[in-house]
Amino acid sequence: MKKIFSLTVIAIFALAFTACKTESDTEPEPDLDEIGKRGPGSGFIFFAEGGQYKECSGELGNNTWDAAVTAARNHRGGGFTNWRLPNRSELDLMYKNLKTNNLGGFSNGYYWSSEENDSFAYSQDFGLWYSNQEAVHKSFSYGVRAVRAYIGDTP
Fold first, then answer.
1. CB within 8 A of 11, min separation 6: which ones?
2. Are 93 and 46 in contact (CB under 8 A)?
3. pLDDT at 6
4. What is the torsion angle, in degrees rounded to the nearest 10, for the CA atoms of residue 35, residue 36, residue 39 and residue 45?
5. What is the pTM of this model?
6. How far is residue 71's CA from residue 29's CA, in Å, rounded to a whole number?
7. Among 139, 150, 91, 99, which Cα is nearest to 115's?
8. Per-10-residue mean pLDDT for the chain, 155 residues long?
9. Buried-state track 72-108, b at ≥16 Cβ within 10 A, e below 16
10. Hey, what domains does the chain have and what are their CATH numbers?
11. What confidence score (pLDDT) does residue 109 get?
């Protein structure tokens, strides 16, 4: 009997706590109308949520990982200097939000991420029907896209 009473009390508490959630507790909805449009840096918007945006550059060629880091940092799309190589999560969003919707002009090849470990760095396969991430030797030559973040209309 004590178990049933305890479970009932826990269930009521959980229900009351869930019902008390405020609007600020919820995740902002993605602004899907912005995905694929051009950002202020002339890149393709691949993330738009709660007034925060991320855009990726067009193709910056194929390079080894070290050269890819430099190419991304040196990119000056829209005159901005805050471009960099994307992290793994950003690469995955670029694949899901742009590539799978035929936006952004991606090739069916691998792209570098900024995440590294000794002689290896992570890349993502932007295949036609699938995508996966793996650590590969930094001497491989893969595609380069730079990314930058900005808030609202403020670059």
1. none
2. yes
3. 46
4. 50
5. 0.79
6. 33
7. 91
8. 45 41 55 93 96 97 98 98 98 97 96 97 93 96 98 69
9. beebebbebeebebbeeebbbbbbebbbeeebbebee
10. 29-151 (3.10.100)
11. 96
CB-count exposure of residue 31 (10 Å: 0-12, 13-18, 19+):
middle
* Type of residue at 123: S
Compute and round to an integer the Cα radius of gyration of the chain.
21
Q: Are 54 and 47 in contact (CB under 8 A)?
A: yes
**Rounded Cα gap, residues 3 and 56, in angstroms:** 55
pLDDT of the residue at 7: 40
What residue type is assigned to position 28 of the chain? Answer: P
Q: Which of 72, 130, 119, 64 is nearest to 96 (CA)?
A: 130
Residues whose CB is less than 8 angstroms from the CB of residue 120 and which lie 6 or more positions away in sequence, other chains included: 135, 136, 137, 138
DSSP string, 68-105: HHHHHHH--GGG-S--B---HHHHHHHHHHTGGGT-S-
